Each structure stands twice: as C-alpha cells, then as structure tokens.
Amino acid sequence: MTEQFEKGLAIRRQVMGDEFVDRAFEQATEFTMDLQHYITDVCWGGIWGREGLTKRDRSLINLAMLTALNRSQELRGHVRGAINNGVTVEEIKEVMLQTAVYCGAPAAQEGFRIAKEVLEDMNALK
After folding, report:
1. Is residue 7 within a helix (H) or strand (E), and if so which, with residue range?
2. What percentage of residues in the chain have a pLDDT greater than 70?
3. What is the Cα–Cα distance from 75 to 96, expressed in whole angstroms?
4. Which residue ranges make up each domain of the chain?
5. Which of 54, 67, 124 is nearest to 94 (CA)?
6. Residue 88: left if φ>0, alpha if ψ -120 to 50, beta else—which one?
7. Is the per-residue pLDDT at 126 higher than 90?
8. Number of helices (H), then strands (E), in the chain
9. Over 90: is that where the pLDDT of 1 sits?
10. What is the third-level CATH fold of 53-126?
11. Angle at 28 between CA 75 and CA 59, to 5 degrees
C-alpha cells in the first residue's frame, strides 16, 4: 500500500470509526475491493488528508452535499463522522435547514430523518 493509502486509512478510521471501516473491507468482494482502495487512497488520503480545511469543516460540507444529492446511505455514515469530528447536533440541524432553502424541502426532510435516526442511535439527542 502507498503512503497516501495508509494516511487515508488512518483518517477514515478516525472519522468513520473502526467498525465502519472494517465492515466496508470485510463486505468487499473481488469485484468491489478496488473501489474500497480507491476511496481510501484518493478520497480519504488525497482529499481528507489535505490541510486546507479541518476535518470538522469537511464534515459540514459533506452533510450538505450528501443531503443535496439524496445519498442516504452515505449521509448516515457522515452524520456519525461529523459527530466524531466535533460537529454539534445543533450545527447538524442548521446544515439541514440550510439545505431546505438551497436544495428543497424534500431533500432537507430526508436529511433530517436520516440525521435523527443516526443521532438517536448514538444517544446524541436530548
């Protein structure tokens, strides 16, 4: 593995958690393993590993983009990752409200629903 892959793997584990990352690699098949390597190397090592934004900032951006794109499965993981990166529940709520204006109410409703499920699972809601 390359140095960038190793860096990406460490960041991916820090943000998403060991259980999530282990499951992603364990569930990968011969057909899908190259994608796991690509995501870890390019996305996590190449982009998340850059110094231009904090991991916290990247998490906030991801929440908005994944809500806008209606990528529910990825949003679930990144809500958890945002909490791991120090984003507050209040800030997640504000991102979802912001998406209502720029992405439409249906996208925001789905984003709120998914965020609520994950936050409840993490015991992060009062």
Report:
1. helix 3-16
2. 100
3. 11
4. 1-52, 53-126
5. 67
6. beta
7. no
8. 7, 0
9. no
10. AhpD-like (1.20.1290)
11. 25
